[in-house]
Each structure stands twice: as structure tokens, then as C-alpha cells.
Write a structure and sequence with these properties.
- The protein is mainly α and 238 residues long.
- It has two domains: 3-151, no CATH class; 155-237, Alpha-Beta Plaits.
- It contains twelve helices and six strands.
- It has helices spanning 8-16, 38-56, 73-90, 101-113, 115-121, 123-127, 134-137, 143-151, 168-172, 198-202, 224-227, 231-237; strands at 22-26, 63-67, 155-158, 178-179, 187-188, 210-213.
- Helix 1 (8-16) packs antiparallel against helix 4 (101-113).
- The longest helix has 19 residues, at 38-56.
- The chain is elongated.
- 24% of the residues are buried.
Length: 238
């Protein structure tokens, strides 16, 4: 019922599913049916999404948002018609960009995986009040912002020297990306990890085992034998 509900993930998923374009029809700006101004949230999401599309080589004109009231059926029909024409001129996903469709889809897939990270990293701008001046909108998210965003994608790694196998991170991970077990140093499956940072926040400070890595490769996974935490021998040693 509200364009504010149109999440970045819905748009990216639509492209991932092979759609050539996404059209969002939102209520008129400053005429929100509720008190949430969800249409402004949708607008900001669209601006960010367009910059991301540019970054990966997907034509940003494939995404459009228009604002209208429920009584403006004609406007809806006209804007959809002209958008369809525009998209036909651009061409199908990938072909229109002159790039391999599968390669472009892989890039979209990578973006889809990073959505929780994108939302966390961009949260301040996404929640900041938006200028009513349309000329200011393009400056909210710049291509440089997006380049920095992806340059600084972190990796999360569990330090085997510090992990005490308490299982907190494993229980909190939204993607089942942490492999654990009783008295076993926990490890992160980097393929499944969506970089949400939940494990980093959840690991008790007294252990501080989850490490955030920037601009460096994740150390190799240790062997199964080395993952065993021998608490008894540790006590004896102490
Ligand atoms: S950052 Fe941590 S909690 Fe988030 S998906 Fe990756 S392993 Fe799971
Ligand atoms: S929360 Fe920290 S100490 Fe506990 S299992 Fe995870 S990484 Fe290890």
C-alpha cells in the first residue's frame, strides 16, 4: 500500500529475476496517505539504487519512480507507456548495455548479497531529511559515495586464538553462515556471509573474537583438529 515498503532488495531481485525494468508508482510528494512520507523513502532508495546500477554497468534508466494520486489513472497509463517505449529503446537486460548477460547478472547477485551491508553503511543518508528542491536530489548519493561503499566492503573473521565457542554469533547470524559446535572454534563461511556485522556486535567483549577486516584477505580456515578447544588441558596448564 505504500511505496516506502518498496525495499532496495525488491528492485535488485527484480533485475536478478531477469526483468528489464522496474517502475514504481508512488503517491504525490507531500501528500502521504499516512504520516510516514514513505514516498520520500522510496525516492531516496531509487536514487541510491540508480547509482549502484551505474557502478555495476546496468543502465540506471531501467529504474523509474513517478509520483501520482490514485485518481490519476491517465497519468499512470501515459507514464507506463512512455517508460515501456524507453526500455524497448534501451533493449533487454545486458544486451542494451552491450555486456554479457550472465556476467551482469553475477554483479547484480553480488549486490543483492550485500544489501544488508549497503543499508547499514548508508543508514545516515537514507534516514536524513530530504531537500524539497529537486535539483538537490542527485547529490544525495553520488557515484563516488557508491565507489567508496564498495571499496570498503568488510570481511568478518573469527580469530581462532580468541574464540571460546560460546555460540552467540552462530545463534544471531541471519544467514547460517557460521559453522560451530561444542568446544569447536567457530568459523565463518565467507560464501554465505552477507557482511551484516551482527556477529561482530554479538561476540562478547571479553572474547572479542570476531574481527572486521578491511582491504585485506581473510586468513585460511584452520584444520578440523586445530578447531578443538581443549579446556581441560588449558585448566591444567593454568
Ligand atoms: S557478518 Fe557475521 S552475522 Fe552477518 S552474515 Fe556474516 S557471519 Fe553472519
Ligand atoms: S560469539 Fe565470539 S567467542 Fe562466541 S562462538 Fe562466536 S566468535 Fe566464538
Amino acid at each position: 500500500m505504500c511505496s516506502g515498503r518498496v525495499d532496495l532488495s525488491f528492485v535488485i531481485k527484480a533485475f536478478l529475476n531477469g526483468n528489464d525494468a522496474v517502475y514504481i508508482a508512488a503517491c504525490k510528494l507531500d501528500e502521504c496517505n499516512y504520516i510516514t512520507s514513505g514516498n520520500y523513502h522510496a525516492l531516496k532508495m531509487v536514487i541510491l539504487c540508480k547509482r549502484i546500477m551505474e557502478h555495476i554497468g546496468l543502465n540506471p534508466n531501467r529504474l523509474k519512480i513517478n509520483f501520482m494520486s490514485a485518481s490519476e489513472g491517465n497519468k499512470f497509463a501515459e507514464t507506463v507507456d512512455s517508460f515501456i517505449k524507453e526500455i524497448k529503446d534501451i533493449g533487454p537486460f545486458g544486451k542494451g548495455e552491450g555486456v554479457d548477460e550472465a556476467l551482469l547478472k553475477d554483479k547484480v547477485k553480488e549486490i543483492y548479497k550485500l544489501i544488508p551491508y549497503i543499508k547499514i553503511a548508508m543508514r545516515e543518508k537514507l534516514h536524513a531529511p530530504i531537500s524539497r528542491n529537486r535539483e538537490e536530489w542527485d547529490k544525495i548519493f553520488t557515484i563516488q559515495d557508491v565507489e567508496t561503499l564498495f571499496r570498503e566492503v568488510p570481511s568478518y573473521w573469527i580469530d581462532p586464538e580468541k574464540c571460546q565457542a560460546c555460540g552467540t554469533c552462530l545463534r544471531r547470524c541471519p544467514e547460517d553462515a557460521i559453522i560451530g559446535g561444542k568446544n569447536l572454534v567457530h568459523i565463518i563461511d565467507q560464501q554465505k556471509c552477507i557482511k551484516c556485522g551482527t556477529c561482530f556486535e554479538a561476540c562478547p567483549p571479553k572474547f572479542g573474537a570476531v574481527t572486521k577486516l578491511l582491504g585485506t584477505t581473510v586468513p585460511a580456515v584452520i584444520s578440523e583438529e586445530k578447531r578443538v578447544i581443549n579446556r581441560k588441558s588449558k585448566d591444567t596448564k593454568d
